[in-house]
Amino acid sequence: MYENTLSDFFKTIQNHDWITHSHICIYRAILELWHQNKFVNPVPISRLILMSMSKVSSNATYHKCIKELVKGKYISYVPSYNPYFGSFVHILVLSFTAN
């Protein structure tokens, strides 16, 4: 499951020129949290933890990448505006099609 999702991600991003190393690092960190959550969706996330895991140090870059990963249909994101509760991410099934 995990390996297929990561493999499909790397196959899919070959067709998306907008993907940067920051997107890849954040997506990979989300997958690690999904793994720790026993592959159950949604995955609870914390911006600070995810930024630390992905080595993304800018809040602007983090939010931009999350927004673009949602737009690209890699993840679905449910933000929490409560400081005591984290946000949630759903790992979406990627439909890889070769060109």
Topology:
Elements: H1 2-13, H2 21-36, E1 43-45, H3 47-54, H4 59-71, E2 75-78, E3 87-91
Antiparallel strand pairs: 1-3, 2-3
How would you describe this protein?
The protein has helices spanning 2-13, 21-36, 47-54, 59-71, and strands spanning 43-45, 75-78, 87-91. With 99 residues, it is of the alpha+beta class. It has one domain (2-91): Arc Repressor Mutant, subunit A (Orthogonal Bundle), CATH 1.10.10. The chain has a three-stranded antiparallel β-sheet. The model has no long low-confidence stretch (mean pLDDT 89).
Task: Characterize this entry briefly.
With 99 residues, this protein is an alpha+beta fold. Helices cover 49% and strands 12% of the residues. Helix 2 crosses helix 3.
User: Which structural class do you get from the secondary structure elements?
Assistant: alpha+beta
Number of strands: 3
In N-to-C order, the SSE pattern is HHEHHEE
Mean pLDDT, all residues: 89
What is the distance, rounded to the nearest whole angstrom, between the alpha carbons of the first and last residues? 24 Å
Q: Main β-sheet: number of strands, strand sense, barrel status? A: 3 strands, antiparallel
Content of β-strand: 5-15%
Number of helices: 4
Q: Helicity, in percent?
A: 40-55%
Which consecutive residue ranges, at least 5 long each, have pLDDT under 50? none
